[in-house]
Specification:
Elements: H1 13-24, H2 34-42, H3 45-51, H4 58-79, H5 84-96, E1 98-101, H6 108-135, H7 148-155, E2 170-174, H8 177-202, E3 216-219, H9 227-230, E4 239-243, H10 255-264, H11 278-287, E5 292-299, H12 306-316, E6 320-330, E7 342-350, E8 356-360, E9 363-367, E10 396-397, E11 408-409, H13 411-420, E12 428-432, H14 434-439, E13 443-446, H15 453-457, H16 460-474, H17 478-482, E14 499-504, E15 506-507, E16 517-520, E17 523-525, E18 529-533, H18 537-543, H19 546-555, E19 557-559, E20 562-564, H20 567-571, H21 581-599, H22 606-609, H23 617-632, H24 642-663
Parallel strand pairs: 1-2, 1-4, 2-3, 4-5, 6-8, 12-17
Antiparallel strand pairs: 5-7, 6-7, 8-9, 10-18, 11-13, 12-13, 14-16, 14-18, 15-20, 19-20
Helix pairs in contact: 4-5, 4-6, 5-6, 6-7, 6-8, 18-21, 21-23
């Protein structure tokens, strides 16, 4: 029977009974979707995390396949509902559609796609069956719905009652051998279930046994395998590529994954910052032709920050466009150890005049264009700047101590020294940074000038600390050595004359506003925060507005799920129009109101005040009026939603960049194309 020696398993009475019980089980009640949940539950979190493996639930799969192909097929079904010729044409179409998941895991995307196509097929055949009954005189109540010409036509379209949707049109690639086998098993099970459903509807159907090929599921690395070899594409093939590729940040890749990225992005600059999933998007762009569309579930970071400029120009330059996007939804499933990430779904195709859609908060919007930031705007790519685009003040990083902690003091350490040496009180200043400002934490630093240095050196515990700073810097790097000759001071020394705005570098994604602070000059801002020294008060209102946070969330990088503020991308690129004295005064009045409402709750930290679930009503109302005042600086008509705000900001950014280039003698504004220089990981 076998060409090679084959060791048959030894069946005991118990194993025989298990096989019999399995055969008697009602498999129609088993959802193949469960296998993905099982894999995620049993596999170690470390192994799963290293592969970026996450099981996708059926509702989230439907968010992919409906706009990718299913909605269009059902629209065609409704349009041809009383047209036998059109229905048969649709039958032929769905019978040859290819579905390809190049990161298929346990096969959930393939399973659900297969089931949905089979369900549509049943609906079409049932409708044709109705035609046949009417034409034969068995359904006279439907007669008025069908033109007489179609009744004659219906009789000519007697269809054999079996399914034309074969597993051989379903393709996948999976790296993990266990998941690969489960995917094949799941497709067989799904086929059996749909055969039973087909038989229930028509009394006959395709036999499940003997088992045939369970789809073309290839085990291997999808970044290395040529997709054309796995799922061959001919000129007129209708292929839908879909899936949930691995979620891994560019800095979390192992050596093999870095090599994968090197291979795919050979010739590109700065690709080492891209998420691993970018490999699938770029390979998909190379695979797409006229009749091939792609949709992947992705972390939303691929459409934020510098990743947009690093990836999307190279895709758009291949005559590819985003034709639908489902923005920023919470990823979830029924499995244990599920990921807590914010996802987007991005659909790609060749450029077309067909409609494009953005799905946001459950609402579908038709738009003119979808750019790399998943916004209804032109394909503009915001780049880091070293100077503000708008007439805005310089933002600095706080002071860098480079002191190994010897110039820093907590309350107890400072009080102990002052008790022994009362004259040292003036040598200390309060320190604030991101954590300190948000949580009202008190720290101190030794802040010396050349005038009070002799006093500090006369105090033994302070002199000891200063000497340790000198030793630390002498043994340190270039920056440390450069300031070793003044160990009594921070390496970077800046201070406000009167006031300063402190902006935390990292802020929770949950917050509706950035929890910035307004301090007098007695505070020293350290490098864990950004600072604007001696600003006009209206600047506080601008940074603390919802429209600025929208810009930040669009262009900032991420630390886990939190926004990481970038001066070059978030502040210097922020488009803000020139405003007059009256507009500044209006903003300042609203800033005073926000600060006044904060003061009413002085016992609470900014973290507590800006918790969206606990924000005081008075503070929220004050921010609402501030938001309206900031937005009136842009236009008098209120914005309807964030999508409209972002679209307006993009247009203003494009306009301001063009004006800047014209001033500098550069008349044409075009997105910068990727460089051809290969740059490996740092």
């Amino acid at each position: 029977m076998f060409s090679k020696p084959h060791n048959a398993p030894n069946f005991t009475r118990r194993s025989r009974n298990v096989v019999i019980e399995s055969g008697e089980l009602d498999w129609s009640a088993i959802n193949p979707d469960i296998f993905g949940s099982m894999i995620q539950a049993v596999i170690t979190p470390e192994h799963r995390g290293g592969l970026g493996m996450h099981y996708t639930s059926v509702p989230n799969i439907m968010k992919v396949i409906e706009p990718l192909f299913l909605t269009e097929l059902y629209e065609e079904f409704e349009a041809a509902k009383y047209d036998p010729r059109g229905l048969n044409k649709l039958l032929e179409r769905i019978g040859i559609i290819k579905i390809f998941d190049p990161a298929c895991g346990s096969g959930n995307f393939l399973i659900i796609s297969y089931k949905e196509l089979r369900l549509l097929e049943i609906k079409i055949l049932q409708q044709l069956q109705t035609f046949q009954k009417v034409a034969s005189g068995f359904e006279p109540n439907h007669l008025e719905l069908i033109p007489k010409a179609q009744l004659t036509l219906a009789a000519a379209f007697q269809r054999p009652m079996f399914s034309r949707i074969e597993l051989e049109n379903f393709y996948g690639i999976e790296l993990d051998d266990f998941a690969h086998e489960i995917a094949i098993l799941s497709l067989w099970l799904a086929q059996h279930q749909m055969n039973m459903k087909f038989k229930e509807a028509f009394g006959t159907g395709n036999p499940t046994l003997p088992l045939k090929e369970g789809g073309h599921i290839t085990q291997g690395n999808a970044t290395r395998i040529e997709w054309q070899k796995v799922c061959p594409k001919k000129e007129n093939d209708e292929i839908y590529v879909l899936g949930n590729p691995p979620y891994l940040g560019g800095k979390l890749l192992d050596d093999i994954q870095k090599e994968d990225t090197d291979i795919i992005f050979n010739g590109f600059d700065n690709y080492y910052n891209l998420d691993y999933i970018a490999c699938w998007f770029y390979k998909a762009a190379l695979y797409i032709t006229k009749n091939i569309k792609v949709a992947f579930v992705s972390t939303n970071s691929i459409s934020q920050g510098t990743q947009v400029f690093d990836l999307w120009p190279s895709i758009f330059n291949k005559n590819i466009e985003i034709f639908f996007a489902n923005k920023n939804f919470q990823w979830s499933n029924n499995a244990k150890n599920k990921a807590a990430v914010i996802c987007s779904i991005i659909g790609l195709r060749e450029k077309s005049i067909s409609p494009k859609y953005i799905f946001s908060n459950g609402i579908k919007y038709q738009v003119k264009n979808i750019n790399g930031y998943l916004s209804n705007a032109a394909n503009i790519f915001v780049q880091k700047r070293t100077i503000p685009l708008s007439n805005l003040p310089i933002m600095n990083q706080g002071n860098i101590p480079l002191d190994s902690g010897y110039l820093m003091f907590n309350d107890i350490e400072r009080e102990d020294i002052i008790k022994l040496y009362p004259t040292t009180n003036a040598l200390f200043k309060k320190v604030t940074g991101s954590v300190e400002s948000i949580n009202n934490l008190v720290r101190w630093c030794l802040w010396l000038s050349e005038n009070n240095l002799p006093l500090a050196l006369s105090i033994p515990p302070l002199k000891e600390r200063i000497d340790k700073v000198r030793d630390f810097r002498i043994k340190g790097g270039t920056n440390a050595k450069s300031c070793a000759n003044r160990p009594h001071q921070f390496c970077m020394v800046n201070n406000a004359k009167s006031a300063q705005i402190v902006i935390p570098i990292v802020s929770s994604e949950r917050r509706d506003y950035i929890p910035i602070s307004y301090f007098d000059s007695d505070f020293i801002v350290i490098h864990s925060a950004y600072v604007i020294y001696d600003p006009e008060l209206y600047i506080f209102g601008l940074i603390n507005s919802a429209i600025h946070l929208l810009w930040v969330k669009t262009f900032s990088g991420k630390l886990k799920n939190d926004s990481r503020y970038s001066v070059g991308l978030c502040w210097y690129s922020f488009p803000f129009p020139e405003i007059n004295h009256e507009q500044k005064q209006e903003l300042e009045r609203n800033v005073y109101q926000v600060l006044s409402e904060r003061e009413k709750h002085s016992e609470k930290t900014l973290a507590q005040l800006y918790d969206p679930d606990k924000m005081p009503n008075g503070l929220r109302e004050a921010h609402h009026h501030l938001d309206l005042a900031v937005e009136r600086c842009y236009r008098s008509k209120p914005f309807l939603n964030d999508d409209e705000r972002l679209e307006y900001l993009f247009k203003l950014y494009e306009q301001m960049i063009a004006e800047e280039k014209e001033r500098n003698g550069e008349l044409n504004f075009e997105p910068v194309k990727p460089k051809t220089k290969k740059k490996k990981y740092a």
